[in-house]
Amino acid sequence: YPAFSLSDVIIYFFLCLVKVNSTFWELPETHQLLRQTCRDYADRELMPIAAKLDKEHVFPAKQIHELGAMGVMAMEVPEELGGAGMDYLAYSLAMEEISRGCASTGVVVSVNNSLYIGPILKFGTVEQKKQWIAPFTTGEKVGCFALSEPGNGSDAGAASTLARQEGDQWVLNGTKAWITNSWDASATVVFATTDKKLKHKGISAFLVPMPHPGLSLGKKEDKLGIRASSTANIILEDCRIPLENMLGPRGAGFRIAMQTLDSGRIGIAAQALGIAQAALDCAADYAHKRTAFGAPIGKLQAIQFKLADMAVAVESARLLTWKAAILKDSNKPFIKEAAMAKLAASEAATFCSHQAIQVLGGMGYVTDMPAERHYRDARITEIYEGTSEIQRLVIAGQLLKEYQS
Amino acid sequence: MHSNRYCNRIIVLPFSVLLEIRVKPDNSGVVTDGVKHSMNPFCEIAVEEAVKLKEKKLIKEVVAVSCGPQQSQETIRTALAMGADRGIHVEVAGKDYETLGPLQVSKIMAALAKKEDAQLIILGKQAIDDDCNQTGQMTAALLDWPQGTFASEVSLDGDKVKVVREIDGGLETIKISTPAVLTADLRLNTPRYATLPNIMKAKKKKIANVKPADLGVDLTSRLEVLKVEEPPQRQAGVKVETVEDLVGKLKETGRI
Q1: In what residue span(s) does the Electron transfer flavoprotein alpha/beta-subunit N-terminal domain sit (chain B) (predicted)?
Q2: pLDDT at res. B214
Q3: How far apart are CA B142 and CA B65, in angstroms?
Q4: ipTM of the complex
Q5: pLDDT per residue over B166-181, tens digit each?
Q6: Which residue of B190, B192, B199 to mutate against A (max A Cβ within 10 Å)?
Q7: Chain A residues with CB inside 8 Å of B203's CB?
Q8: Disulfide: which of A274, A383, A388, B154 matches A96 by Cβ 3.0-4.6 Å?
Q9: Nearest chain B Cα to A28, which residue?
Q10: Which one of A19, A30, A33 would you mutate to disrupt binding with B, by most B Cβ within 10 Å of its Cβ?
Q11: What share of chain A has pLDDT > 90, as a percent?
């Protein structure tokens, strides 16, 4: 089979067109400036408070406002609607830098961008975009995405939340589980079954404002990590919404959810990269400073091998993430690459944060150093927006299609 | 002279400074190869002030100037992303860059100010890598313009500028005529983060390339750096039992 795939050649041309004199992997200048801006913001405004946000489970409202003012809360949204009008590569770079500062802030940004605004941007009417996107670009309001239920996570096709039509309203009933941003959101995209007989083709998507009569929130989950972001059940009891609140065509809900998650994966991969990089930074810095056996521990091969493995894990996941983002931006198929990126990055995050604690030894186990927080924050990246097992199924599915004769 | 009541053009000079300084092994200077540069914090404040004045519609154009090697262009781009209208990169590289000091920079600024017909020059009060605190003052002297240094508050009033300066004794308020040179102190403002739409717009803004020779500036340094050393390593302290012991120890080490 060919040594380069068509997508490799396309990326090479894309990067060539973008900056003629650069080396193969140099980012375009605007993207470099964007990355530096987000890094400066994360270093100055997020890193110093991340431990406190985590300890006190506090939603970073002020920082979300500031990120909104910078355009980070709606990166793909066109400028007419109040967004930054940038591409997915820019979004991935911003997500990595923000998450490197504070993983919780990163997930709030990611859910708003990919899971809430994403489907409305793609499937919404002009009116819906004005009403449901424009107010959510400034950081004043954030949205959330309600797909999972207590009875089904990976098994998204089995949605038991029901929607029935009554006159000029939809009436929603059911419970959604594990909804990020729920306690801080002003709107949600909800998936409910409109035609049970059609099974997963009978699921539709709806836009529901929050708060709203008939919509209530369960208790805030007490999580291992990303504690500054709220996670809770959303309970719908005869929740009534106007007919025009349906997003996309009737029965398209499952398709909308899957496509949304395919893109959201790239954002979460970038979040995992940020956590992995933060863990690597922590470990490498410690290796310089901590002395044992008469020298900095960075001189010891055992530590060097760990750092090398961490660096390879992060860099390879990063390149996969960038590739997925560039493919998406070029309107090329990207489902396999996005799943690969999310899988690689989340496993890199858990690996790097695990090894970072190991490098720090006892210091890695206490809250004085951020290593333990990275360990706790990293764990969820292998679970949400498609578990690592689901990613493997997606990758295998796409891969086998390529080999079909 | 201008009959126009309002200032037309401000030049800001964002300087890039080195992060993570290490002294060269031969003590001739600090390591500059491969060290990350970023915009001097006081210069960020200067750029922010210029952009704010433009937003208040008191001035028409903000030009960002930086002197240095290729990397200086990044600093100019950051200034453009914050809201400056165009940039001028004065190319100074290699040996010339190593010996580039406040006097040469002020000569360059003075030449540019005349060429660009600027009414206001705003700089950071000092660069955090060399802490000279001279460029603003020297530029004003070369141009024979009034100066408002260590500014913590700036307000334009017709063709005059009211500057509140932070001095050792407290705050001093002065009123100077334009054209003038101002240097920004810490409390002048809080610089904004560039918004992403502005970063995109900055791509389209122009950066002109200029050589010091084109401005008629001679870059030879009047100073020769003899030696650069790290500060002495902090020694461990000594505990003493009584006040008499303390006085004795102080006398012993020649402190009193």
Answers
A1: 27-219
A2: 87
A3: 18
A4: 0.71
A5: 999 999 999 999 899 9
A6: B199
A7: 29-30
A8: A274
A9: B203
A10: A33
A11: 87
Stronger pLDDT, A387 or B28, i.e. the higher one: A387
Torsion region of B131: left, alpha or beta (phi above 0 gives left; psi -120 to 50 gives alpha): left
Cross-strand bridge partners of residue A232: A179
- Alpha-carbon distance values, B106 to A85, B101, B136 (Å): 40, 9, 7
CB-CB contact of B14 with B43 (8 Å): yes
Report the alpha-carbon distance of residue A101 to residue B229 in Å, rounded. Answer: 34
Lowest mean pLDDT among A85-94, A188-197, B197-206: B197-206
Checking if the pLDDT of B10 tops 70, the result is no
Which pLDDT does position A20 carry in this prediction? 38
Please give the average per-residue pLDDT across A141-158, as a whole number: 91
Of B38, B193, B200, the CB nearest to A30: B200
| Both structure tokens of B225 | 């750096």
Q: What are phi and psi of A208, to 5 degrees?
A: -125, 130
Helix (H/G/I), strand (E/B), else coil: B175: strand
Q: Which residue has the tokens 């600024």?
A: B109
Find the closest chain B residue to A29 by CA distance. B203
3-class SS of residue B151 = strand
CA distances from B155 to A68, B49, B90, B164 (A): 30, 10, 29, 9
Does residue B197 belong to the interface with chain A, where contact is any CB pair within 8 Å? yes
| Other C-beta atoms lying within 10 Å of the C-beta of residue B143 | 20
Run of H or E including A303: helix A301-329
Asked if the C-beta of B195 comes within 8 angstroms of chain A's C-beta atoms, the answer is: yes
Strand-strand pairing, B86-91 and B207-210: parallel
Chain B positions touching A71 (Cβ under 8 A) are 195-197
Alpha carbon A50 to its chain centroid, in Å, reads 18
Closest approach of A79 to chain B, Cα-based (Å): 8
Return all residues near A235 (Cβ < 8 A) that are at least 6 apart. A175, A176, A215, A216, A217, A218
pLDDT per residue over A258-305, tens digit each?
A: 999 999 999 999 999 999 999 999 999 999 999 999 999 999 999 999
**Residue B80 — very low, low, confident or very high, per pLDDT cuts 50/70/90?**
very high
Average pLDDT, chain A: 92
**Minimal CA–CA distance to A313: which of A273, A268, A286?**
A273
Q: Give the torsion through C-alpha atoms of A151, A157, A158, A163, to 10 deg.
A: 110
